[in-house]
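Homework help board

Subject: predicted structure for assignment chain

Our instructor gave us this sequence and asked us to write out the predicted structure in token form, then describe one feature. I got the tokens but I'm not sure how to describe them. Can anyone check?
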Amino acid sequence: MHAGMDDVEEAGLRAFAVRVGCYAGASYPERPQWIERDGERRDVAAVESQWREEERLGFRVRLTDGAHALLYYVPELDLWSAVDVRSSREFRV
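My token output:
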């Protein structure tokens, strides 16, 4: 368990774990470029918004097929997780 996060919260994040390729200029992560889960890679067309929470960074992204996803990065765990946002085409992570 890590500071500020309980075991249940960490397990929840890990249940939605994905690989994310990011552009990293001055800092990591600056801009997600692709998402991969179960060997399927999906390209990010745009980062529509991003924010910082106490223990993680959040990104709302639009994928090249028009689907949307919420990405979360927990620096302390070096862990990405993703949740689909219903749109014209569902993104299953």
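Reply (TA_rk): Your tokens look well-formed. For the description, you could write something like this. The CA atoms of residues 47 and 61 lie 4 Å apart. That's the kind of observation they're looking for.
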